[in-house]
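Hey,
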Amino acid sequence: MTQGFTSTARLVFAARSIVVLDEIQQIMRDALTHNDFSVADCDRTDTVTLRFATCTGDWTVSVHHEADEAMLHVSAPSDEQAVLTPLAHVLFALVEALPVSHVIWAGTDLRLPRDRFITELKPACAAQGPVAPAEPE
């Protein structure tokens, strides 16, 4: 599917973490399905990128190394406000399951510590409700 704009958030991994795409693939598939995005196809486009074809467009996950950090870029198929809540729910599932130290929200450089991200999103994610943006500390 041809895509235009995307919303990308970044997960920063704890020092010396090993990023396993097979594990991420299963977490993403489950999180997308749980958030009403049926996954029609999932493929590894190269050694560091997964693409999930859904009814609304392609979600991608790719591993990047920036400075001394390993990051996971998670991209939703739109830059519209409506995709930010599902993106937050998907990120929540990844952060809960993986050794992430910080979340960098889409369109910002704001680093939210793992514990704050989980604490603030847990009620909305448990209720499958909308997510409000975090305020800087």
